[in-house]
Amino acid sequence: MNTSTPSAVGLIAGWGRYPFVIAQALKAQGTAVHCIAVAGHADPELAALCDTHTEMGVARIGCGIRHFKRLGVTRATMAGKIFKHKVLYSRFGWLSLVPDLRTVWAFIPMYLFRKRDRKDDTLLTVIVDEFAKDGIHMAPATDFAPELLVPAGILTRRQPTASELEDIAFGWQIAKDLGRHDVGQSVAVKGQAVIAIEAIEGTDECIRRAGTLCRQGGFALVKVAKPQQDMRFDVPTIGVGTIETLAAARAKLLAIEADKTIVLDRDEVVRLANKHGIALIATSDAQIAGGAWQRQRGHAA
Fold first, then answer.
1. pTM of the prediction?
2. What is the DSSP letter of 150?
3. Quick one: how far is CA 245 from the chain centroid?
4. CATH 3.40.50.20, applies to 8-143
5. 3-class SS at 192?
6. Mind listing the pLDDT tens digit for each residue in 140-187?
7. Is the domain 149-300 a CATH 3.40.228.10 member?
8. Among 79, 80, 87, which residue's Cα sits nearest to residue 60?
9. Residue 57 and residue 61: Cα distance in Å, rounded?
10. How far apart are CA 76 and CA 10, in angstroms?
11. What is d(CA 76, CA 281) in angstroms, rounded to the nearest whole number?
């Protein structure tokens, strides 16, 4: 990780609170923030935190590169969700985005010659590589706010039950397999049976679907990083909205991957989880494989 902070950082901002947190962290470090807000995704109020702010379509790669170069930006970062299903699967597909020439040339191998797949990692890597060709290198947003990555531990008052620990171990490997194929990051589990998996719709919709299918509630959500996780983009992220959605769906546990999951507004997340009786645990591949939590609970008993 590069611990030095440049005098100016370009921020490509998508949906949600994450771009706000990164902009605030950069400003606190005395760094100028030049924001490209993705049209239809980023909150306009982000402009108040940034030194410069311009809205741009997601398919305007060439415009974005020229904009950053004019401002002298050589290091940039991405923060916030891009809703792929709304971007790529609207009525006229990617053509509805009115792509600039740089975007067209970058994605020709994928869309015209079908030489590459259209997984999230593939799409985002194309964008990152195009910026890098012009000397603008994307850094993980967590380089600027490492405190957002939660360490291993049980964050809430309520600890997982023995059956919930079994569900975590069961769901963990399934979620990892989903990530290996770049399908999604989350799986809802109860009684060592899969209720719902996350795909293109995102975590919140996966939770809502699990709540619809499991009317009795009490299920666990396991959310992990991909085995091949690129920390520059699509890092697992939870926040207040995640807990509210879990509570509405009557879930009782959220397991996330330690040191690879961003928790926004951690104090409020923990407060809400405690209020709704939701256990929140951060764990790892090694702990799951070694049965660390099961042994810890057994000793406590």
1. 0.87
2. P
3. 16
4. yes
5. coil
6. 999 999 999 999 999 999 999 999 999 999 999 999 999 999 899 999
7. no
8. 87
9. 9
10. 4
11. 32
